[in-house]
Amino acid sequence: YPRRYAPETQLSKFNLSEIEAMLESYTKVLFVRDPFQRLISAFMQGMGSSPSFSSFVQDVLDSGQHNAGVTWKPLVSLCRPCLVQYDYVVVFGFLKQELSHLLRRAGLPADSLLPEFTDTQVQWTYSWLSEQMFSELSLQQKKQLSHFYRRDLCAFPFSSSLLTD
């Protein structure tokens, strides 16, 4: 798509026909991650000033979806999967298989371009950590989080998420 604007121009600055033309001319890839794991990651990186994970989660819930930080905002509200037809959705935890497939489809040598992944170790670690952090939450917080991320849980394949229960 011929650019008439600076590369950093947001998609929302274009009119509908320009947006459609641009989106049709690109291969659209969406990277997604279990919302609970995103919360844990944000907490571990010190994104909030809360002393405990439970109080951090309460701060997130109290802020609401419209005021949520981009790090823990529901993905559906960030990437608009109902409006944008993504060609690929890559789920965190399956990066090696999915990126390898994606590169092959693009006609690129997958083996030489990918770094070494440790998906199995990462999945095990996040599974253990998720269970530990989840046990710190009250039943009400668990229900509120499931409601907060309900559209993400419906839109993406997070079948093993603790929030789907």
Automatic annotation (TrEMBL):
<keyword id="KW-0812">Transmembrane</keyword>
<keyword id="KW-0808">Transferase</keyword>
<protein>
    <recommendedName>
        <fullName>Carbohydrate sulfotransferase</fullName>
        <ecNumber>2.8.2.-</ecNumber>
    </recommendedName>
</protein>
<keyword id="KW-0735">Signal-anchor</keyword>
<keyword id="KW-0333">Golgi apparatus</keyword>
<dbReference type="InterPro" id="IPR005331">
    <property type="entry name" value="Sulfotransferase"/>
</dbReference>
<dbReference type="GO" id="GO:0000139">
    <property type="term" value="C:Golgi membrane"/>
</dbReference>
<dbReference type="GO" id="GO:0016051">
    <property type="term" value="P:carbohydrate biosynthetic process"/>
</dbReference>
<keyword id="KW-1133">Transmembrane helix</keyword>
<dbReference type="InterPro" id="IPR018011">
    <property type="entry name" value="Carb_sulfotrans_8-10"/>
</dbReference>
<dbReference type="GO" id="GO:0050655">
    <property type="term" value="P:dermatan sulfate proteoglycan metabolic process"/>
</dbReference>
<comment type="similarity">
    <text>Belongs to the sulfotransferase 2 family.</text>
</comment>
<dbReference type="GO" id="GO:0008146">
    <property type="term" value="F:sulfotransferase activity"/>
</dbReference>
<keyword id="KW-0472">Membrane</keyword>
<keyword id="KW-0119">Carbohydrate metabolism</keyword>
<dbReference type="Pfam" id="PF03567">
    <property type="entry name" value="Sulfotransfer_2"/>
</dbReference>
<keyword id="KW-0325">Glycoprotein</keyword>
